């Protein structure tokens, strides 16, 4: 059935104001919602086959939600409801080597410009999930989402990692790979440094023990000295202190 001579109205919650209206063989913009002005178009190619497809230009996040399509021809009318999902594919993930952490190397993956919030994960060369050390998602001023995740690569672990970002609405993935990190990049502890550390610990322990023993010995010597001189005056008497008896 042709829809060329029908009235077609696309709206959100009320017939007026509308998202787009078509009647009398042409588009009508008199009561169009301000946020859709100059952004909508009813595709005319399919009207003869009863196709009343609405095209929205310069899609915004606020366009997401429920839409009603109301078609009327005289006493005949029909209404359909659909849900519009908005999605945005962001940047390819950027992987960088940041610093040393917890005995390994910390690598970070960053991406931006996604909607809705993307799924972010680390994978090894076999496609197996690699544990992340941290992950944060943030919403930007334009409403899109960015994500940052980190992982710690140890010297004896898998050193080839990739960062995968997935948009479930679009069934789209973007991936970046961090290639092999060679041995010289991993933090090392020299044997002489380890020996020096042990020696210092032993010396400090010996010094503490010597001080402790010295204090004990000093206390014992003081106690013996006091015992040996018990009963003696604490200071000698002078001439003025003596009283002589005359015979």
UniProtKB/TrEMBL annotation:
Single GO MF descriptor: signaling receptor binding
Record flagged with keyword Transmembrane helix: yes
Gene Ontology CC: external side of plasma membrane
Keywords annotated in UniProt: Disulfide bond, Immunoglobulin domain, Membrane, Transmembrane, Transmembrane helix
Keyword Protease belongs to the record: no
Localization in the cell: Membrane
TM annotation in the entry: 192-214
Protein name: Ig-like domain-containing protein
Protein source organism: Pelodiscus sinensis
């Amino acid at each position: 059935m042709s829809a060329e001579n029908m009235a077609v109205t696309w709206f959100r919650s009320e017939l007026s104001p509308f998202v787009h209206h078509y009647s009398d063989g042409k588009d009508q913009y008199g009561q169009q919602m301000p946020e859709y002005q100059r952004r909508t178009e009813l595709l005319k190619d399919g009207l003869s086959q009863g196709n009343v497809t609405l095209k929205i230009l310069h899609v915004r996040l606020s366009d997401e939600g429920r839409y009603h399509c109301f078609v009327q021809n005289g006493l005949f009318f029909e209404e359909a409801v659909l849900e519009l999902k908005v999605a945005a594919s962001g940047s390819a993930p950027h992987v960088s080597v940041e610093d040393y952490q917890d005995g390994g190397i910390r690598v970070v993956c960053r991406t931006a410009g996604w909607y809705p919030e993307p799924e972010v994960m680390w994978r090894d060369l076999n496609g197996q999930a690699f544990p992340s050390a941290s992950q944060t998602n943030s919403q930007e001023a334009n409403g899109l989402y960015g994500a940052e995740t980190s992982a710690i690569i140890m010297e004896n672990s898998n050193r080839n990692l990739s960062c995968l970002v997935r948009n479930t609405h679009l069934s789209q993935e973007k991936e970046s790979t961090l290639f092999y990190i060679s041995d010289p990049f991993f933090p090392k502890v020299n044997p002489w440094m380890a020996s020096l550390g042990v020696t210092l610990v032993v010396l400090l322990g010996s010094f503490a023990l010597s001080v402790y023993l010295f204090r004990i010995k000093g206390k014992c010597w003081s106690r013996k000295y006091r015992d040996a001189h018990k009963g003696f005056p604490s200071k000698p008497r002078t001439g003025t202190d003596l009283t002589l008896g005359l015979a």
